[in-house]
């Protein structure tokens, strides 16, 4: 298999075998969830109870508390007593929430506490999600049917203004990238891409790298896989507006062309916060370009990304995926 173009190679760590409940999935269907969290008392228990109610339960769920100052640790301690698959890893308080690199640092603290080869799938799961009970079983079934799927997710919806009585609306999400809040990876694919970059836009870089290596990386719109994002995407650090600026900066870092960024902003112009959110995305990319910020990866990766994005603009994302994967060897 071709080697990854990244400089963040993931190496499978050795660790003691995890504490596994008697109801653990059979070999071939064993998955481990790793959840970075900080000050998540409002949504934590709801997500963990959704996990406990899954028809295909996890073999292990590692929750990494990244220095919470609210009741998060108290909730985790209580739930760990009743959920045999739950393991808690505590980290020191860095003094503030850190999206992007901070989240991935916490994820790796969880990853280093397990032996990855004990599992068939590895999932980075946020703890502000409400998942349907057959969510993980459905993902595994789809991946068992198609060995070229390296990473898979459903699609997120949210309640506007976090009012649960309001009708759910979809978050902007294409079919071509497994969503960052629920990255469900085949173990072999996760190792092939080298894991996650410790930077903003990690959840796009891994997807394009996996596609470059011949793996499918998908978000399915099936109604059975829809889940609720209890906190709108990009709002975890001060405001949605800051999150949109950060998204634009991250797209520049990844290597996205301005034309593709502009098309994405126009496509999201009606998504709350309407118009202003799109302008913030454009501002973020332009600010990074003006200051000549560093960009990720090698010329080979950026050339692949630009070609894929051009095909997506001119042929659609589904056809673009087919065209770029058609020229790649089967990772199996």
Q: What does the secondary structure layout of this molecule look like, with pairings?
A:
Elements: E1 31-37, H1 44-52, E2 60-66, H2 72-80, E3 86-91, H3 101-111, E4 121-125, E5 129-130, H4 135-145, E6 149-153, E7 156-158, E8 169-170, E9 182-186, H5 187-193, H6 202-212, E10 216-219, E11 227-229, H7 240-254, H8 258-267, H9 276-290, H10 299-315, H11 317-326
Parallel strand pairs: 1-2, 1-4, 2-3, 6-10, 7-11
Antiparallel strand pairs: 4-9, 5-11, 6-9, 7-8
Helix pairs in contact: 7-9, 8-9, 10-11
What would you say about this model in short?
The chain has helices spanning 44-52, 72-80, 101-111, 135-145, 187-193, 202-212, 240-254, 258-267, 276-290, 299-315, 317-326; strands spanning 31-37, 60-66, 86-91, 121-125, 129-130, 149-153, 156-158, 169-170, 182-186, 216-219, 227-229. The chain is α/β, with parallel strands linked by helices.
Structure description:
It is globular, with a radius of gyration of 19 Å. The strands form 2 sheets. Strands 3-2-1-4-9-6-10 form a 7-stranded mixed beta sheet, sandwiched between helices. It has a 4-stranded mixed beta sheet with strand order 5-11-7-8. Residues 1-9 and 14-18 have low confidence and may be disordered. By secondary structure, it is of the alpha/beta class. The N and C termini lie close together (9 Å). The protein has a domain at 238-316 and 322-326. The protein has helices at residues 44-52, 72-80, 101-111, 135-145, 187-193, 202-212, 240-254, 258-267, 276-290, 299-315, 317-326, and strands at 31-37, 60-66, 86-91, 121-125, 129-130, 149-153, 156-158, 169-170, 182-186, 216-219, 227-229. The chain contains 11 helices and 11 strands.
